[in-house]
Amino acid sequence: RPARRVLLLGEGNFSFAASLCGAAGTCVVATCYESEEEVSRRGRAAESIRLLRERGAEVMFSVDCSKLKDHFSSGEQEFDCIYFNFPHCGRKAGVVKNRELLACFFHSSAEVLTEEGEVHVALCSGQGGTPADQPQREWHNSWQIVAVAAGAGFILSDVHPFKAETIPGYKSTGYRSQDKSFCVEGALNHVFTRSIPLLCFKPVVCEVQLESQKVSFQVPQVLVDKMNRGFLELNSTHPVQTVKEKLTAELSQAFPLQNIDHCLSVLHQGRLNGVCHSNVFWITLSPEESPSTEEMSDGLANAVLFSQADFCRDTDKNGWGKAQEGYHMSKEYYLRPSLLPYAQAIIQRGTFLPGTLHVLSGPVFRKCLITPYSMPVFHEVVLVCAVKRGTENSCIQMLVNNIKSSICSLQQTVSSSKLNISLREAMSFETPELNDFAAFESQLSKIQYFICMEKDTSGFCEKRSCVGIIRTAHYDPVSSELVFVFASLNLDLLAMLICGISDWRMLWTSDKRFLSQFPRGELRLFKSFSLYPPSYMHDVSFWVPDREQFDELAFHTIARWVSGETVISIQLIDSFQHSETGRKSLCYRLTFQSCDKALSRQNVAEMQLLFRKEINKHLGVTLR
Questions:
Q1: Residue 581 burial by CB count (10 A; 0-12/13-18/19+): exposed, middle or buried?
Q2: Kind plus residue range of the DSSP H or E element containing 494
Q3: Which residues pair with 487 in a beta bridge?
Q4: Burial class (CB within 10 angstroms; exposed 0-12, middle 13-18, buried 19+) of 83
Q5: What local confidence, expressed as pLDDT, does residue 327 receive?
Q6: Residue 113 contacts residue 82 (beta carbons within 8 Å)
Q7: Are the beta carbons of 458 and 415 closer than 8 angstroms?
Q8: Which family does it belong to (predicted)?
Q9: What's the pLDDT at 59?
Q10: What is the pLDDT of residue 572?
Q11: d(CA 395, CA 393)
Q12: Measuring CA to CA, which residue among 488, 441, 482 is closest to residue 348?
């Protein structure tokens, strides 16, 4: 392998460079901002420079950290690692000036760093402004290093103490631009890596098999990066697939298994008992001829956004919308919100084998408000078994016991923390206790039991997380002697709880550092590669349209696709009604944060402007 090229910036007396230079397989380029004459007057500097040159290192002077491309021509090899220890503008420069210095440095480093290179920045105690600093300074009084680095496309991937005592011969210098040392006790070394870029998704047309023919449709913008990801394919190493494989392998020890995933279409047509139509993604099939760019744009908006009046129709006693004038149910399609209707259809066709555990799995899609545990798409596995009437309770107990033992076995291979798995009757659950998954399943069918998981030490999920449901039903058109037991599990939530993944969005990242932590067939405790991501808050206030109910679900859906799922919270902070006109004004606070990508203030400002434009266009609000 070629030698690892390391660039050192802002060396005061070159003592750090002299220590690093001895490392095997390392090619050191040591630089400082001052001239050689100025530096040589500092204590021990001349000796360190002589030692570096004797060992073959390159020593450069008058190097500006904000203009690295001027010092290293494009023909030269890029650097694998860049060190900048205790940067400072000099003398009594304040936090603002030093933030500007860091911003210029990070942008400059991006031009001479290899694709998988690292940038190391050591700062004195408290300067960085991250929770790793103890004590942590107030944000406005820190250098805000993670937010500054994000502006140049970097994320903080590691942070650890800077232990000067472990560096042979190292001595700090440069206190207030003098040849004086400064305190490095409690100093931290911040390690930054390149982030994958924020993606700007274009309209996408998806082709699927629908009954006997192939049809195409325009994918809702909020789902463009989540369609056809293949997480559950046989050769997938994604933890969701590994959880499913190990779960079904355990169940196969107690039940004969049959997988029937191959016949499931992502599009569905028909009744949605008990479900408000605003919770599903309605789809308009594309015409046979290729749509123009303008048609795609218009069709995309129509696929993603409907006003509440469009899909919250009058409902009959079964919870199905009564068609209004001009509305034809047979021509309406939507992305499947659950796999349960497919299981029911298979039973009613009489192709179900009694005593066999039938397994259906795949992604399902649901519109939902933005909350920490609400997923507009996740992978569901549905288990169905037909048993004789009177034996359904024993079947449920056997199924639950096998699910529990499988999940506990998976957890023990990953972490020493314990998972408590329980079966709770639906009647014992209060509505506020239900997470988004359980609440939606409750709309689809009458649930008898919830499968709950509780972790001993859980800093990222609800104290009690509902990961599955169980119900029984009589569907056999021929015999009334059979009872069908249904179990539905959220594979994404299971993977998160088992592997310690704190944010559901991480499951969908395209950053290869995620999947690299999960070799084929293995589950491990996930280590985040983006630490302490910065968050930004923006407020938006507007007058709602007269005589119309404000569609909050569409409001959240717009926020999702405009921000690329970087809005993590939407809070109503003020509501006002004009005493004379009766007009109503709402003010919401949006919090932006990315779990895997660099997100800068500029990025968020642009998203906020686009968000204002889109809610005005699609929801008819008047911005204030």
A1: exposed
A2: helix 491-499
A3: 383, 470
A4: buried
A5: 37
A6: yes
A7: no
A8: Belongs to the class-II aminoacyl-tRNA synthetase family.
A9: 94
A10: 96
A11: 5
A12: 482
514 pLDDT more than 50: yes
Q: Which two tokens stand for residue 449?
A: 């039991």
CB 508 within 8 A of CB 225: yes
Report the C-alpha gap between 108 and 7 in whole angstroms. Answer: 13
CA–CA separation, 293 and 204 (whole Å): 11
The architecture in CATH of the region 204-287+303-308+331-516 reads: 2-Layer Sandwich (3.30)
Confidence of residue 275 (pLDDT cuts 50, 70, 90): low
4-194: CATH topology? Rossmann fold (3.40.50)
Range with the poorest average pLDDT among 189-198, 380-389, 413-422: 413-422
CATH superfamily to which 536-623 belongs:
Ferrodoxin-fold anticodon-binding domain (3.30.70.380)
Q: What is the mean pLDDT of the chain?
A: 83
**Peptide linkage before 135 cis (omega within 30 of 0):** yes
Question: Per-residue pLDDT averaged across 253-272, rounded?
Answer: 80
Domain with CATH 3.30.930.10 in the chain: 204-287+303-308+331-516
Q: Which residue type is seen at 89?
A: C
Q: Lowest-confidence range among 128-132, 264-268, 294-298, 332-336?
A: 294-298
Strands 536-543 and 267-268: unpaired
Distance separating alpha carbons of residues 430 and 496, to the nearest angstrom: 24
pLDDT digits (tens, 9 = 90+) for 443-476: 545 567 778 877 655 444 444 578 888 888 765 5
Residues of the chain with CATH 3.40.50.150: 4-194
pLDDT of residue 322: 32
Band of pLDDT at residue 294, cut at 50, 70 and 90:
very low
- Between CA 90 and CA 97 the distance in angstroms is 10
Mean pLDDT of 345-362: 82
Where, residue-wise, is CATH 3.30.70.380 in the chain?
Answer: 536-623
CA distance 421 to 426: 15
Give the number of residues written for the chain. Answer: 624
Distance set, CA 227 to CA 205, 222, 265, 286, 441 (Å)? 10, 10, 13, 17, 22
What would the DSSP string read from start to end of 241-303? HHHHHHHHHHHTTTS-EEE-GGG--SEE-S--TT--GGGS-EE-BPPSSPPPHHHHHHHHHHH
Q: Answer yes or no: are the C-beta atoms of 491 and 467 closer than 8 Å.
A: no
Q: What confidence category does residue 420 fall into, taking pLDDT thresholds of 50, 70 and 90?
A: confident
**282 pLDDT above the threshold of 60:** yes
Rounded CA-CA distance 421/417 in Å is: 13
- Which tokens belong to 614? 């889109």
Closest CA to 145 of 135, 132, 134: 132
Residue type, 151: G
